[in-house]
Write a structure and sequence with these properties.
This protein is mainly β. Strands 9-8-12-13-14-11-10-23 form an eight-stranded antiparallel beta sheet. The protein has a six-stranded antiparallel beta barrel with strand order 17-18-19-22-21-20. It has a three-stranded antiparallel beta sheet with strand order 24-25-28, with no helix packed on it. β20 and β21 form a beta hairpin. The longest helix is centred in the N-terminal third of the chain and has 9 residues. It is elongated, with a radius of gyration of 40 Å. The chain starts with a helix and ends with a strand.
């Protein structure tokens, strides 16, 4: 039963002004007490958070009755328009945040001035044949380029799919937050809703208790149950609070970035669009309200394009000028050498054969041999193209054999 004029006037002019109150229901409901539904008709008052009576200022207490009917206070949490706020959990659904061509419904989309929302359903103008994507106004905006994926998911100028016409700006006293993105080319999008298929039609008569499903950018495929089809709620937008009427209230089935997702019944009929929510509830505008706002646009119920899939964006080929190869990484050169005998006497000749390693340009390097302890005449050799060298000299001491050392140096470094 709908509230009487007197009851609704009190709800709007008195109850809605109380601190913590977010809205009310325009239809009476059975009062819930201790978690059980009673036979008592009541006026539902939606609050951000239920608190003990002794912690509420007297002027902010919700009246126990309004015009002879009991009230029932329901906590719904802080309800906001569901703009995108990235979370780690979104990585689980990263495929919905990438680029698709053609674009299926239920993936990331947004005007260039927003973060991202969701593509809702494909629609067609009844007279001029234009095809567009229906989503929320706060996702598409008005007269803006719209990209897929949305800007926060990397969408830019090369990802443009169309331009928006902001058909129904959400205002206090209104019923919808809805917009259409007119496609640049009909080949850019598909009718199919990701994980849900093609809509069968529309349902303009939702009921409390009806099971719904949606497919959206952030939380993917989810299900919920309608708890109200006549909620009047204050919604927090970026530019302020707006109170909308005749709203669908469901159990939680959406998160930030799901705004614009189509709500479908179990037969795949479109019932409305998600546009707001809290930690415990989701809020949508009804299909009958949307059709009142968009009488010239109808939901497409046949597939218009080929199979979709995530696609890499095709960028113009860029040819870089040829660059010289980088110089080789510096290395530490070293010498290895052997002697022609194991012992020597004064006057004996000594042949030192060796090789230099890890040197850029092995040929023509100077290797110097000396033994100051035994007065061996300093001598040297030059390496060949493979780094090999041979040094020949003489022992010039009188008391041999004994231990002695030979120092080899490469370009002055031992």
């Amino acid at each position: 039963m709908h509230l009487t004029n007197e009851q609704e006037e009190i709800a709007q002019s008195v109850i809605m002004k109380k601190k913590n109150v977010l809205g009310y229901d325009a239809e009476t409901k059975k009062k819930v007490k201790d978690g059980k539904v009673t036979n008592i008709d009541s006026i539902v008052i939606y609050v951000r958070k239920k608190v003990p009576i002794d912690q509420v200022a007297p002027q902010d207490l919700v009246d126990a009755e309004i015009e002879g009917m009991k009230t029932d206070v329901i906590e719904v949490g802080a309800i906001v328009a569901q703009f995108t706020i990235p979370t780690p959990q979104q990585l689980l659904l990263v495929s919905r945040m990438t680029r698709y061509r053609p674009v299926p419904m239920g993936v990331s989309l947004g005007a260039t001035s927003v973060t991202a929302g969701s593509a809702g359903v494909l629609v067609k103008h009844k007279t001029d044949g234009r095809v567009g994507i229906r989503t929320n106004y706060h996702v598409s905006k008005n007269d803006e380029n719209v990209v897929q994926p949305g800007p926060i998911d990397g969408g830019g100028d090369l990802d443009k799919v169309g331009r928006s016409i902001g058909i129904s700006i959400p205002v206090s006293g209104g019923k919808v937050d809805i917009g259409v993105v007119v496609l640049d080319d009909i080949k850019l999008a598909r009718t199919e809703i990701l994980d849900l298929g093609i809509p069968k039609g529309v349902n303009t008569n939702p009921t409390v208790g009806m099971k719904l499903k949606k497919s959206g950018r952030t939380s993917g495929l989810t299900e919920g149950t309608i708890t109200s089809i006549s909620a009047v709620l204050s919604i927090q937008y970026n530019d302020g609070i707006k109170t909308l009427e005749a709203l669908i209230l469901t159990s939680k089935m959406s998160d930030g970035g799901d705004s614009g997702s189509a709500l479908l019944d179990e037969a795949n009929n479109v019932v409305g669009h998600i546009f707001a929510g809290s930690d415990t509830y989701s809020v949508g505008c009804r299909e009958d309200s949307i059709q009142e706002a968009l009488p010239d646009w109808e939901v497409v119920t046949t597939e218009i394009n080929a199979k979709y899939g995530p696609t890499a964006i095709k960028l113009p080929l860029r040819i870089e000028p040829e660059q010289a190869p980088p110089p080789p990484a510096p290395t530490t050169p070293f010498l290895s050498a052997t002697l022609d005998k194991s012992s020597y006497f004064s006057g004996d000749s000594i042949t030192i054969s060796g090789n230099i390693k890890d040197v850029v340009g092995l040929e023509g390097k100077l290797i110097l041999a000396r033994s100051s302890a035994f007065q061996m005449s300093p001598t040297s050799a030059v390496s060949d193209k493979d780094g090999n060298f041979t040094i020949k000299t003489f022992v010039r001491v009188v008391s041999v054999p004994t231990d002695f050392e030979i120092e080899l140096s490469f370009n002055g470094d031992p």
